[in-house]
Amino acid sequence: MVTSAPVPPSRGIRPIRIEEEMRNSYLSYAMSVIVSRALPDVRDGLKPVQRRILYAMHEMGMRPNQAHRKCARIVGEVLGKYHPHSDTPVYDALVRMAQTFSMRYPLIDGQGNFGSVDGDPPAAMRYTEARLAAIAEELLADIDLNTVDFSLNFDDSLHEPQVLPSRLPNLLINGATGIAVGMATNLPPHNLGEICDAVCHVIDQPNCVTEDLIKLIPGPDFPTSGYIRGTQGIIDTYTTGRGRIVMEAKTEIEEIRGGRQRIIVTELPYQVNKANLVEKIAQLVRDKRVEGISDIRDESDRQGMRVVIELRRDAQANIVRNNLYRHTALRSTFNTIMLALVAGQPQVLPLKRMLTLFVEHRQEVIRRRSEHLLQRARDRDHILEGLLLALDVMDQVIVIIRTSDDAEAARTNLMDEFDLSQAQAQAILDMQLRRLAALERERLQNEHEELQKTIASLEALLGDTAKILNEIKKETRKLKKDFGDARRTEIDPMEVGEQRVYIKRVPCDTYRTQNRGGKGVRGMTTREDDALMDLVVVDTHDTLLFFTNRGRVYPLKAYQIQGDTSRTSRGTLLVNLIPIARNEQVQAMLPVKNARDSAMLILATRLGEVKALKEGELTNIRPSGLIVMDLEDGDELVSVAQIGDADEIVMITEKGQAMLFQVRNCEDPRKNLTPRSRSAGGVRGIRLSSDDKVVGMAPVTSDGHLLVVSQGGYGKSTPLKNYPRHGRGGQGVRTFRVNDKTGPVAASRVVTDDEGQEVFIISAKAQVVRINLEDVRVTNSRYTQGVIVWRDREPDDYVASVACFTENDYSTGGSLSSDTVASQTESHSMNGSSSDGHQIEAPSDDDTYANSVEEDMDENEEPENKEE
């Protein structure tokens, strides 16, 4: 066996464990990328390469009022002095700071081809030219006044600023995007004027909260304009530093000859490539995933963006547009991560913290600037004091100078004779003879007095933090005045989900009859805060009329709703069947077999107005819908009913008031509710208190009862004969005792004593209770709270709507069809019915962008992630 002694380590070689070396080296690399490349500083909002480009252009004298210079020269200057890396990232950074579609306020004024929103690359740096933009001067202002720290460059031959003084809140107004090691930043741009207002507000109210700032900064302001849908993502971003902001293109629908329509896209979501978008739409048409498009072309020019999407004659523009939002980047998501360097450390920053750090930076800059100016003023004033003294004793000064052997002796003699400093004595020696003139002396005296005022002012400023903050506000207001502009991106407070109206049909026997107070079964899969609203029984060939809160009506045949829908499925998105506009919500749905002029509809609004309309007015409704009522500002349609043979209607409010009045066959014909044209408004039906609103309206039958159900699950049935008749426009009488336990009135229906009458109670979370009407107590007293008709509900669930039927309504095999208006904040939903029970499949969705349409899901299935 051969053995050998261990080899002693050579001189200068130190043994290191490989895992330790890899760990240390990786951490060094990661911190270098984080601090020196990828992330912006919270103070000036710039990455190192951007800061070096701007500083190099400043040193080269490339001011906004100077001529443009070749970008190749700028890149060479940056590489040779400050940024020892490839020329490609330097030029890419320069190009981005000059692109009007990338930066809300470009910092570089470019001349030549700097790329386009179609993804075209910029021309080579030898062809393009650039200079500093006027607003970039605000980033570099006062940099020569010792306002920031400088450090040695890569070869210790020059100095470069560690941060720019930055009067401009650049990080917020231009945003930032960067991927470091294990972290990334993605800040949206904002409007300068709004950010300036917020900076001043933080100075005035240091204890303000995010809600106060959102009033000043409603949201990001993208350079490509467009829309922001919903405010929750904005709130999350400003509160936590992370959020999901939904962006949407600006589109218009135009009518063209031949009864056709076209969709015009004039503004895109931020960072969307227009050429790729057009190609994506064309591919969807070829694959027949989006129907109704006959042609698409890009007509954009120097005047602005214009993408034209022409539709076939039978296509509905709103439906096609919704499908494009779903499948393409016309609706995109900006996932915000407000990450920046704070004292060299990466931190996720809420809005207020970011504004506060900027104000602190400006305080430091103004303090250092003031100290520098103060010292310079004191030095100059010190010289002036010596000159003025010399002028007073000029004869003696001349004698001392003439009798001195040389300049050095003369300076020393002056210092000894008049107690002067070396600088003062040297200034006297350097003084020109013209200073002896009376006018020159007066100028020196005036300069001395002005300097005294400047010194006093700077000393007062440095001694009072409030004055420094006022100086910041003054500079910030000037920024807004000089560079502020109007907001480009519009914010629609309606979330994308708020227009989700689902419709489905299932057999009536899907729901078994239960006893009063039952828990119910799940009627359909819902999202959080979704709610169902109504149930109707129709035949397959009946027409369903959908009335929206904006006073419009849309038609849909029952057979157009696909069948084979399971009990728990959500159904089909209604916007794929009827063209509901963005600001509309479905409020009522009526089944109509044959519209007749003799039949009359009654429409009621939330603020208590009513209107009569002949059913014949709703024949031949075009698919794009019709206006059925002119609404007052702030009002909306809440209920529509077929009056049949009834002469009276009853209106019920959230606070439990009921108003019963006659609408036709009145003794005085002038009191009749005369049918009006579709475009007309209504008349007052009930006078409301300031905090009340109408929740329901129904025709009155001779043997009818008024069924009222509260959100807390309490219900009661009261004979309508117990209600006094009033003239239209009164306050009505109390019909339900509302308290904390019962909650406000959720819904009301007029029911009869017919055998087999059943009540469907639908909760906000889609629990459906089917009970017999006879299980609901009939009480002659109007001022009661009734009995519990629905229990065992979840703590945050509540009654959303009520529907009533008799066995005759569906004894021939009818089935239920349901629509759900879903919202993340306030939900409304509707259920209809049809004579067949086929499942409705929602359109599939394999697009990588955030979409407004969800697929059908089983009850326990989680929605798939729609974000890229």
From TrEMBL:
Signal peptide: none annotated. Residues 809-837 have a biased composition (Polar residues). SMART domains: TOP4c. Residues 422-461 form a coiled coil. It is an enzyme of class 5 (isomerase). Residues 809-868 are annotated as: Disordered. This is DNA topoisomerase (ATP-hydrolyzing). Residues 843-868 have a biased composition (Acidic residues). InterPro entries: GyrA, GyrA/parC_rep, Gyrase/topoIV_suA_C, Topo_IIA-like_dom_sf, Topo_IIA_A/C_ab, Topo_IIA_A_a_sf, Topo_IIA_dom_A, Type_II_DNA_Topoisomerases. Its EC number is 5.6.2.2. The active site is at Y127 (o-(5'-phospho-dna)-tyrosine intermediate). The keyword Isomerase applies. PANTHER family: DNA GYRASE SUBUNIT A, CHLOROPLASTIC_MITOCHONDRIAL, DNA GYRASE/TOPOISOMERASE SUBUNIT A. Pfam families: DNA_gyraseA_C, DNA_topoisoIV. Belongs to the type II topoisomerase GyrA/ParC subunit family. Residues 39-506 form the Topo IIA-type catalytic domain. One of its GO terms (molecular function) is ATP binding. It catalyses: ATP-dependent breakage, passage and rejoining of double-stranded DNA. It comes from Geodia barretti (Barrett's horny sponge). GO terms for biological process: DNA topological change.
